[in-house]
C-alpha cells in the first residue's frame, strides 16, 4: 500500500499548451531572425552585447532556464526530424534541419554570452556540433534537389547517421554545460561565507534539480549532497536550512544522491535537526520531507536504510511530535508522509508508534479540518493505520480514539476537484481504509463497532457500484476482503443475494462478477 511521492513542481512538458506556445514564441522568432542573418552576430566588438541574444536581460538562474528550454526545443525537433525522415517527407526534413541549425547556434551564442569560463572541451564540442549541423543542412538540401528514388534511398541511411551524430554531440554538449553550471554553483556554496550569495546558489541548484532525475544525478555526482549537508552543519547558515533541506529532498530521489547521503552521515544530521527544538517548524518540516523522500517504498535502492534503523526511534519520536504540534496542513502532510513510509520497512516502527500514542495523535488530527485538509494527508494517516493494524494491541487504540468512525468516513472519500492526482489519492484512501477494517475486524469489538456504523452496506455499495470506487480494482478487492471478514463476525448483516454473490464464492469469482457489472451498464 505504498503512498506515492509527494507532488513535485511541474516540468517543462507538463504546462498549459498556450502558455508553452507563448514562452516558445520568442525563441522561435529569434530562430527566424537567425535564419535570415545566417547566424552572424550584428556586433563586431567582442565586449558589446549582441541585442539579439535573449539571455542578456536575465539572471544566471533565468539563463539556465532559457538554456533548458532551448535544449528542449532542439531535442523535440530532432525527434520530429526522425519521424518525418521515416515517412520520406524531405521538404519538411530540410526546413526542420535549418531550424535546428539556427536553434543550436542561438543556444551556443546565448550560453557563451552569460558564461565566462567555458572549457576547451566545451568549445571543441560546440564547434563539432555546429559543423555537423551545417553538414546536416547541406546534406538534406541535396536530398531535396534529387528526385531519383534509388539515390534518395541510398542517401537516407547517411542522413540518419548524420542525425544520430548531431543528437550525440548535442547530448554531450548539454551534459557538459549542465555539469559545468552545477560545478559553478557548488563552488559558490563551498567557498562563499556570504548568506546572500549562498542563498542565490542554493536557489539556482534547487531550480536545476526540479528539471528531473538526470539533473539530480549530475548534481549528486558533482558533490551536491555533500556541499548541502555541510551548510546544514553550520549555525551561521541556520536561516538557509529550510531551503537547503528542500534542495536535498529533490536530489535524494536518485541513487547517486542516496550514496552521497550515506557517505556524509546525512541521516544522523537529519536526526539532529529533527530533535533540536531550537530549530524552526519550517526547518523540521523540510527535514521530514527529506526523510519521506529517502524512505519512499517506491525506491529500489535501500542500502542507506541500515544507518536509518540506528536513528529510527529518535526520528520517529520527533516526527510524531511534529504531527501533534503542526501549525498547518503542509507541515502535517510532510511529517505524516515520513511516518507512513517508515512503517513500511520495519515493524519496529509500528511498535514505537504505539508506545508514543501516535494512533491517538493521528486520529485527533483528522478531526481538525485545518490540519488534515486534503485527501493526500488522509492517505498518509490511513497508510499508518493500515500498517499498524497488523499489531494486536492496535484494536483497542482504534476503539478508544473513535477510529472505526474515521475509517467509515474514509470509505466515502471523493475528489472535489476531479484533479487526477487527487482522484488517485481518494482511491488509495478508500482502499487502505477497507484494508485496515479487514485487518482490525479480527477483533470482535472492532467488528461489532463497524457493523453498528453501517460499514457493511457501504462496502456492498463500493463492490456493486463501479462509480462509487471510481472503477478502481484495488478498492474492489479491499472492500471484498473487508466484507468477508465482517460477514464472518456478523453473518446476519447481509442479505442472501449479497452473501451468495460477494461472500460465498471464491474471491476471484466475486471480483469478476463485480467488474462485469460495469460492462452491463455500458
Structure description:
This protein is an all-alpha fold. Among the domains are: 57-178, Four Helix Bundle (Hemerythrin (Met), subunit A); 402-521, no CATH class. The protein is built from 26 helices and no strands. The chain has helices at residues 17-37, 60-86, 90-114, 120-144, 149-191, 195-209, 213-221, 224-231, 241-251, 255-263, 266-275, 281-294, 305-310, 312-325, 329-345, 347-355, 358-366, 375-388, 394-400, 403-410, 420-440, 444-452, 455-464, 473-489, 496-503, 507-520. Helix 9 packs parallel to helix 12 and helix 23 (455-464) runs antiparallel to helix 24. The longest helix has 43 residues, at 149-191. Residues 70-522 form the Protein inscuteable homologue C-terminal domain. GO terms for molecular function: cytoskeletal anchor activity. It comes from Pteruthius melanotis.
Oligomeric state of this protein: single chain
Please give the alpha-carbon distance between the first and last residues. 31 Å
CATH topology of one domain: Four Helix Bundle (Hemerythrin (Met), subunit A)
The CATH class designation of one domain is: Mainly Alpha
Q: Gyration radius, to the nearest Å?
A: 29 Å
Number of helices: 26
> How large is the share of residues in beta strands?
under 5%
Residue share in helix: over 70%
Q: Say which CATH homologous superfamily of one domain is assigned.
A: Nucleotidyltransferases  domain 2
What is the CATH architecture assignment of one domain?
Up-down Bundle
Please state the overall shape, judged from the principal axes of the Cα atoms: flat
| Major beta sheet summary | none
What order do the SSEs take from the amino end to the carboxyl end, as H and E?
A: HHHHHHHHHHHHHHHHHHHHHHHHHH
**Classification by helices and strands:** mainly alpha
Low-confidence sequence ranges: 7-14, 30-58, 518-522
Can you count the beta strands?
0
Mean pLDDT: 84
Amino acid at each position: 500500500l505504498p503512498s506515492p511521492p509527494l507532488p513535485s513542481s511541474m516540468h517543462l512538458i507538463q504546462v498549459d499548451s498556450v502558455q508553452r506556445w507563448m514562452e516558445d514564441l520568442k525563441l522561435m522568432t529569434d530562430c527566424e531572425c537567425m535564419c535570415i542573418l545566417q547566424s552572424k552576430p550584428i556586433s563586431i566588438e567582442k565586449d558589446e552585447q549582441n541585442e539579439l541574444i535573449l539571455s542578456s536581460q536575465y539572471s544566471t538562474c533565468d539563463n539556465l532556464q532559457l538554456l533548458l528550454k532551448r535544449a528542449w526545443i532542439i531535442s523535440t525537433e530532432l525527434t520530429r526530424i526522425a519521424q518525418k525522415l521515416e515517412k520520406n517527407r524531405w521538404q519538411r526534413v530540410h526546413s526542420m534541419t535549418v531550424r535546428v541549425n539556427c536553434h543550436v547556434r542561438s543556444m551556443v551564442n546565448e550560453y557563451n554570452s552569460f558564461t565566462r569560463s567555458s572549457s576547451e572541451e566545451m568549445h571543441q564540442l560546440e564547434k563539432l556540433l555546429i559543423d555537423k549541423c551545417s553538414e546536416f543542412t547541406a546534406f538534406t538540401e541535396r536530398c531535396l534537389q534529387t528526385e531519383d528514388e534509388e539515390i534518395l534511398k541510398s542517401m537516407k541511411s547517411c542522413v540518419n547517421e548524420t542525425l544520430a551524430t548531431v543528437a550525440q554531440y548535442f547530448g554531450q554538449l548539454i551534459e557538459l554545460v549542465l555539469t559545468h553550471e552545477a560545478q559553478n554553483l557548488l563552488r559558490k556554496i563551498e567557498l562563499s561565507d556570504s548568506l546572500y550569495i549562498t542563498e542565490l546558489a542554493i536557489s539556482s541548484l534547487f531550480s536545476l534539480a526540479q528539471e528531473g532525475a538526470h539533473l539530480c544525478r549530475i548534481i549528486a555526482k558533482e558533490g551536491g549532497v555533500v556541499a548541502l549537508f555541510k551548510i546544514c552543519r553550520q549555525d551561521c547558515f541556520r536561516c538557509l536550512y529550510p531551503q537547503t533541506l528542500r534542495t536535498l529532498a529533490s536530489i535524494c530521489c536518485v541513487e547517486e544522491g542516496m550514496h552521497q547521503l550515506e557517505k556524509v552521515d546525512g541521516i544522523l544530521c537529519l536526526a539532529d535537526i529533527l530533535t533540536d527544538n531550537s530549530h524552526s517548524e519550517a526547518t523540521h518540516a523540510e527535514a521530514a520531507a527529506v526523510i519521506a523522500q529517502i524512505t519512499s517504498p517506491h525506491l529500489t535502492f535501500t542500502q542507506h536504510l541500515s544507518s536509518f534503523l540506528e536513528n529510527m526511534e529518535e526520528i520517529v519520536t520527533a516526527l510524531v511530535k511534529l504531527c501533534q504540534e503542526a501549525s498547518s496542513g503542509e507541515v502535517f502532510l510532510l511529517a505524516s508522509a515520513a511516518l507512513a513510509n517508515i512503517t513500511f520497512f520495519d515493524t519496529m516502527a509500528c511498535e514505537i508508534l504505539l508506545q508514543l500514542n501516535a494512533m491517538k495523535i493521528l486520529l485527533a488530527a483528522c478531526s481538525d479540518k485545518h490540519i488534515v485538509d486534503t485527501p493526500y494527508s488522509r492517505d498518509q494517516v490511513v497508510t499508518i493505520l493500515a500498517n499498524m493494524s497488523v499489531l494486536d494491541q492496535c484494536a483497542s487504540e482504534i476503539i478508544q480514539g473513535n477510529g472505526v468512525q474515521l475509517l467509515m468516513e474514509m470509505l466515502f472519500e471523493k475528489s472535489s476537484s476531479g484533479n487526477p492526482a487527487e482522484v488517485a489519492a481518494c482511491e488509495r484512501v478508500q482502499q487502505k481504509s477497507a484494508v485496515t477494517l479487514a485487518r482490525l475486524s479480527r477483533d470482535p469489538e472492532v467488528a461489532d463497532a463497524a457493523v453498528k456504523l453501517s460499514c457493511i452496506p457501504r462496502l456492498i455499495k463500493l463492490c456493486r457500484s463501479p462509480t462509487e470506487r471510481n472503477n478502481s480494482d484495488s478498492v474492489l478487492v479491499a472492500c471484498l476482503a473487508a466484507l468477508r471478514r465482517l460477514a464472518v463476525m456478523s453473518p446476519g448483516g447481509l442479505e442472501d443475494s449479497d452473501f451468495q454473490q460477494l461472500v460465498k464464492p471464491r474471491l476471484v469469482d466475486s471480483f469478476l462478477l463485480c467488474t462485469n457489472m460495469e460492462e452491463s451498464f455500458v
